[in-house]
Amino acid sequence: MFVYIIRRLFQMIPVLLGVILVVFLIMQMVPGDPALLLAGEGASAENVAKIRHQLGLDQPVMLQYIHYVGNVVQGDLGTSLRSNLPVLDEIMTRLPITIELALASIFITIVLGMLAGIISATKQYSFADITIMIIALLGVSLPSFWLGLTMIYYFSVKLHLFPVAGWGTWKHLVLPAITLGASGAAIVARMTRSSMLDVIRQDYIRTAKAKGLKQRVIVYKHALKNALIPVITVVGLQFGILLGGAVLVESVFAINGLGRLIVDAIRMRDLPVVQGGVLVASVIFVFVNLAVDVLYRYFNKRIELD
């Protein structure tokens, strides 16, 4: 296991380099000149050229990329063009908020999704099964920003149960977490149902029933553990989707997290913040994928780590 983890950590290096390169090239194609934004309207061409030289924007793109990667290796993500603060400091100020939101959302995704999927599988073709699958289909189909605005209207404006926007208390967390986790819960519910239906038809489940074991023991101890492998895969992928979806949700609920920081940086063409934010999110996602692979081995000893 230790050797496998070390090997996977080394495999992250080209992945992260590729992520940095793709983001770097995309930001180069975004219209607008960061030097002109910093210089302000009416600035002379000489001042704009001076700022471009100070920022290194007058160098070839590949050379800019090489310099940036060299700085990242040393733990330097650059300096924000807007605030003139270290990018890493700005990210670490906002990151805990996004992580808290993502963890709350993934909790909702796992708990609601797996419970719904188990109920659907054990009561196949029943009214409960059909109802849950219809709700899951709606959960996958509804855009997160529309769901967020709808929940704000009913639960905040009409019923006054939760704050409209902002961050600070557990009440501020409820609506954004549900909005962000709803789609994932629907996907996990469908996957759990499908996986559970495959498992409960196996011979060892029939044997357990013939031995007189309680239905609860059969479902949660024997069937669920063997049905978790595809569910774990989906949950791991959903965590990455949640980090991306946080951009919209944080904007809807006016949450000053990493997603909103990246959006504001894109609007201002603050390249170092955009690149640093995406890089940090990519590192988190890569480590989540590593954790998913380790969990495969924990839940199914027959899986070989290769």
TrEMBL record:
Keywords: Cell membrane, Ion transport, Membrane, Nickel, Nickel transport, Transmembrane, Transmembrane helix, Transport. Pfam families: BPD_transp_1, BPD_transp_1_N. One of its GO terms (cellular component) is plasma membrane. Its main location: membrane. Residues 95-296 form the ABC transmembrane type-1 domain. It comes from the Bacteria. Belongs to the binding-protein-dependent transport system permease family. OppBC subfamily. PANTHER family: DIPEPTIDE TRANSPORT SYSTEM PERMEASE PROTEIN DPPB-RELATED. This is Nickel import system permease protein NikB.
